[in-house]
Design goal:
It is a single chain. This protein is of the alpha+beta class and 416 residues long. 17% of the residues lie in helices and 33% in strands. It is built from seven helices and 22 strands. The strands form five sheets. Strands 9, 10, 11, 12, 13 and 14 form a six-stranded antiparallel beta sheet that branches. Helix 5 runs antiparallel to helix 6. It holds the Pfam family CarbopepD_reg_2.
């Protein structure tokens, strides 16, 4: 079950709208119930145990190493997860689980050995200037241009396969090995198993998919730990993960979110179908070049502009009007059809954000928009949701990328 934040419409700017597609795990960190994920890792062809394989829940800090017999046992909270199993020399394997349906005997995980005849790439080989230009583009759109995004280091850059030749209008990035990221501002090393990255130059859209594992810094001194705690809180608050968490608990208003509907209305700048048809007919029959030019500029050239525009409704919404709560089952769903305008009032826009007013960024609220791509999307207390493609995001939340990403098992503190 992929981790995603997604925007499906064409963005006006890559800064304000993008397609994000991580492989999103869904689970509830805040439940006290614990469950046991257990199993055995074996080789597919021989059915012999594979010792010391790594098993972890993607987009979390939760993981374990199998023992000498390939067996593992991991205590996990209630919820649904993507599990990634990997071992050097074998193809990584992912599978989805739900703690309501864990087999008592555990899982038998079968790994296929990798094809050893594949041509190896010399990571020390010098790249041409175009490769380095593409690398900077990848960093910009993958890590982000926020303060956190700019601080992240890729420790194995030359493992990246950067391709703009297969499709000249698309930068495609992949990596055989996990991308090793160091995020000093948030205090995480991140092993990001990148599945796909596509940046469309003409459409100005981005799609990236992958499995991140967060490894918190260890042996951090007290002053540094306090700073990391503050930075993590800043990254978390105002994020989509934070919003979902607050909606689930019914505290979004107290936490500083103002939600408003955006209603579509006919675009006043677009001529009506009747006027457009009349203009086409007159353009065909007229012999006047000046008249044809006028028709083209003032009417026909507007045929491709959107039929409708979104207008912000001034009255704030009751957040509960966007939710379906199944009290007996304890389940919560987002259920609405409009675009929802989100104002987060407890933190200003970062000065690095392209939409931040110059000189007065501290007075500007963070503005985002969301829309459902599914009729209903189930929410979890952790801030995750069931369908990774179910929520379209635009604006400030979409601007924050992997450099601001927090593990889904992050538990916020009261310190700000």
């Amino acid at each position: 079950m992929p981790f995603n934040r997604i925007i499906l419409s064409k963005p006006k700017s890559v800064h304000s709208l993008l397609i994000l597609a991580f492989l999103l795990v869904v689970f509830t960190t805040y439940s006290e119930a614990q469950n046991t994920l257990k199993g055995r890792v074996i080789e597919y062809s021989t059915e012999t145990p594979i010792p010391y394989a790594s098993i972890f829940l993607t987009n979390t800090t939760l993981g374990i190493t199998a023992d000498e017999q390939g067996e593992f046992t991991l205590s996990i909270p209630d919820g649904s997860y993507d599990v990634l199993v990997r071992m050097l020399g074998y193809e990584p394997l992912t599978f989805s689980i739900n703690t309501n349906r864990l087999p008592k005997k555990g899982f038998q995980v079968q790994l296929n050995s990798e094809d050893q005849e594949l041509e190896e790439i010399d990571v020390e080989e010098e790249r041409d200037p175009i490769w380095y230009q593409n690398l900077e583009l990848f960093k910009k759109y993958f890590l982000g241009t926020s303060k956190n995004g700019q601080s992240v280091q890729i420790n194995n850059e030359k493992d990246l396969l950067l391709d703009r030749e297969s499709h000249p209008d698309i930068l495609q990035v992949s990596a055989k090995n996990p991308i090793l990221l160091d995020n000093p501002n948030l205090g995480y090393q991140v092993e990001f198993l990148l599945v796909d990255f596509d940046y469309h130059f003409k459409k100005e859209t981005i799609l990236y998919k992958g499995y991140p594992l967060f490894i918190p810094y260890k042996d951090v001194k007290r002053a540094k730990a306090k700073k990391l705690q503050k930075n993590r809180g800043l990254a978390y608050r105002g994020s989509l993960q934070h919003l979902i968490h607050c909606l689930y608990l019914g505290i979004s208003e107290e936490e500083g979110y103002v939600l408003q509907k955006m209603k579509p209305i006919p675009n006043p700048d677009k001529p009506s179908p009747a006027i457009m048809e009349e203009a086409r007919s007159l353009f065909k029959t007229s012999t006047s070049t000046a008249l044809k030019d006028s028709i083209q500029v003032h009417v026909l050239s507007k045929s491709t502009i959107p039929d409708s525009v979104l207008v912000l409704q001034q009255q704030a919404l009751d957040p509960e009007s966007l939710l379906d709560r199944e009290k007996e089952a304890g389940r919560v769903f987002l259920n609405f059809s409009d675009h929802i305008h989100i104002t987060y009032t407890k933190e200003p826009m970062a000065r690095e954000y392209p939409g931040a007013p110059i000189g007065s960024y501290r007075k500007s609220n963070q503005i985002s928009k969301i829309k459902l791509n599914d009729p209903k999307v189930e929410l979890f207390a952790s801030g995750s949701f069931d369908d990774p493609l179910g929520i379209m995001v635009e604006g400030y939340m979409a601007w924050e990328r992997v450099g601001d990403l927090m593990p889904i098992d992050y538990v916020p503190t009261d310190e700000k």
